[in-house]
Amino acid sequence: MARSSAELATKQQAVVPMRTGRSDRFLAALRAARRVVFVAHMQPDPDSLASMMGLGQLVQERLGIPAVLTQEGGIFRAENRAFVDLLHLELLPIEEYVRVPGDAIVMVDSQPGTGRHNHDLIGNVAAVIDHHVTPGNLGGVSYSDVRPELGATCTIVLKYLVEQRLCIAPKLGTALLYGIETELSGFPREATPADDEAAAILYGLADKELLAQIRHARLPQCHFDVLHQALQNATVFGNLVWTWVEPMNQPEQAAEVVDFLIRYDAAEWAICAGVHRNKVILSMRSSRANAKAGELLQAAIGDIGNAGGHERRAGGCIPLTATDTQALRAELVQRCVRTISGADTDGVPLVSATS
To answer: What is the pTM of this model?
Structure first.
């Protein structure tokens, strides 16, 4: 007897599995959790903060599970502080987090084992969402979505929200747009059509007045102190401009310095190293295409620290084991010049001495 069309359809559905999107697989990895705790790298930036916001809403609305957004280290950069204050973000200091049975940890804009967070405080990680080229350890992670070809983690998060048909309110739209802006703005710009499309979508959803207040946050006096010292210490080695700041009030200031120095017309590379408490914070920019900045900075640092990043933007961290930093400063200059510039000169000051 010939089978009915209904019977054939039932058999076909049983044989061919339904396709699921990445957001579905992300949610499936967290379905058994009683609470989802989101963590990012130290001194979280707008890309990581907005990504945690979006994923937190996704988990709450689709799974009905409480979400906790955490913060490790301070948030000092004026724009980032305004971002947190104006958007009224509730962030739990990671030192106050106490794991309870049923918690699922989601790492956002970072990966385990990179040295960019205190992984020991949070235990095993259930999921990772990131866009960095970094030597992370994803062993034992139930779900990971790492897309180094994208310019921002917020772009991934927006794809999840759209895929799940979630409503994006102006507050979240503003956060996600600014998160993408901070990763893509300035020079060098690292963006894909997917990042630009995400920004275009979010621009129509964002609160423009709120966005303007964040973009143009008032700057503290220490910002100008650091910039002054960075310019005084800036040295040019061929196509590399290097500077050292000690002490550096805020770890984010290293990135602010190199964003400024890379605009020097003879520079293809800019590096700022700054002493912040018990660490040396490094930030690097390149004007070259396919510069592999993250890989080169890690090669320069070697086994004395950790680094990672993108093609033309990178950052790193070196623990300090002694209070005298002069020897480390001299070694870092040699390592960076040898690995990145290859210049065989002693270097010349970027800024002429003034009386």
So the answer is: 0.76
